[in-house]
Amino acid sequence: MSRPRPLPKIIRKRSKLHGFGVFAREPINKNRRIIDYAGELIPTKESEKREEQYLAEGCIWTFRLNRRWSRDALVGGNIARFINHSCKGNCWVEISGRTIWIRASRLIQPGEELSYDYCTDGVQSIPCRCRPGCAHRL
Q1: Fewer CB within 10 Å: N-end or C-end of the chain?
Q2: pTM score, two decimals?
């Protein structure tokens, strides 16, 4: 039986996009799983209450799995919660059951910041910072 391939090395540090970000410490090939988005599994109704509080602070910590369930990365999360939004990110999201995987959408070089499109559909109160002049709101 083959051993699971170890996840690529990543690190959290200050970001030019927003606050902290997550950066590759080694090359990451296209479509490779990088990290799972961990956090407390909560009903989406509870998530909506928490989201109001988080949005007031200018953050998005909850990730909706489906209409019924969400993950709250502020409770029991890992460094995946620091991966910033970008309208044209270098990562994409795979939902497999109740697991959320962040995957590379192209070859990512060491030192490059990881990002993906959050695809939010909420109140859109947070301005996007993925590039100067971006008019998108989260």
Answers
A1: N
A2: 0.87
